[in-house]
Amino acid sequence: MRTLRAEIIRLLMEHREGLNVREICQLLDLEPEREREVYSHLKAIARILRRKGFRLLMLPPRCKECGFEFNKLRVSKCPKCKSERIEAARFKID
């Protein structure tokens, strides 16, 4: 049996285009309440991958209306156009 971190790494290796946290939870059959836990695992995964010569990349959240890219992981509203249609951050291994 693999650990949750190992399963997340496996998923990110398989999905080269990247995944957001909600997609990771769905693919691993995790409850939506565990999204916060997945974010904390991603921080540890970044360190693990760095030691192995890989990088965990984050494609930042962006507004679907105007394309504004955020510098925070979790956002609710675009400061530029006030839209709430936000594309979640995606993570991938390089």
Compact description:
This protein is an alpha+beta fold.
Count of helical regions = 3
Percent strand: 5-15%
Q: Average pLDDT value? A: 93
| Helix percentage | 25-40%
Order of SSEs: HHHEEEE
Q: Provide the gyration radius in Å.
A: 14 Å
Strand order in the sheet with the most strands: 1-4
Compute the number of structural domains: 1
User: In one word, what is the shape?
Assistant: globular
Low-pLDDT parts are none
Structural notes for this entry:
There is one protein chain. The protein is an alpha+beta fold and 94 residues long. It has one domain (4-93). Helix content is 37%, strand content 13%. It contains three helices and four strands; from the N terminus they run αααββββ. It has helices at residues 4-14, 21-27, 35-51; strands at 56-59, 62-63, 86-87, 90-93. The strands form two sheets. It has a two-stranded antiparallel sheet with strand order 1-4. The protein has a two-stranded antiparallel sheet with strand order 2-3.
